[in-house]
Amino acid sequence: MIEDHKQIVINALPDRVFDLIVTMPNKFPVYKILETRPFFFIRVLLVDGWRSAVEAVRFERPAESLVLQVGDSMGPFRLTEMEKPLYYRFILRSFFFNCRTGYSLSRCGNMTTLCFDLVVEDPGIFERIWWFFVKPVHGLLAGKVLKVIKAKAEAVPVLVP
């Protein structure tokens, strides 16, 4: 079994954090430069191969928000479970890797512990080798994903008179 769990404490209620994740156009936000087409192409290429990468950059992504329902897909990720404000989970079936990933939220007073999980139940030898090389990059990006969500959730909305 392959497991990777990252977590962060956010100074916001779980409902706010959950709503933010649900409406973000990219459910796994990282650095802005990695959202540009060349880098987005490389990210999808490393996850799901050449065909998916070409298809992903061919289509425009929504600018403001993307609300998925259970069963909807976002590239190689398919939303499988969602219960407000407890969890928001995807399954990834790709050329290189098959796993469950997503977010679990729990309340601690007026704060939220947000966990970003990745689980592979029965990895094959190819998945174990791939994970060995990708794990350090995944760790950096998973930490960044949590920090971006924290910053957005803790941002005070600007009221325009």
How does this model look, in words?
This protein is an alpha+beta fold. The chain has one domain (2-153): START domain (Alpha-D-Glucose-1,6-Bisphosphate, Chain A, domain 4). The protein contains four helices and six strands. It has helices at residues 14-23, 37-48, 50-58, 125-154, and strands at 2-10, 73-74, 77-83, 87-93, 98-108, 111-120. It has a six-stranded antiparallel β-sheet. Strand 5 (98-108) and strand 6 form a beta hairpin. The N and C termini lie far apart (54 Å). The model has no long low-confidence stretch (mean pLDDT 83).
Label this structure with key terms.
161 residues, alpha+beta, Alpha-D-Glucose-1,6-Bisphosphate, Chain A, domain 4, 6-stranded antiparallel beta sheet
Alpha-carbon distance between the two ends: 54 Å
Return the structural class.
Answer: alpha+beta
Low-confidence stretches: none
What is the C-alpha radius of gyration, as a whole number of Å? 16 Å
Give the overall silhouette. Answer: globular
* CATH fold-level name: Alpha-D-Glucose-1,6-Bisphosphate, Chain A, domain 4
Beta-strand residue percentage: 25-35%
As a percent range, the share of helical residues equals: 25-40%
Tell how many strands the DSSP assignment holds: 6
Element string (H = helix, E = strand): EHHHEEEEEH
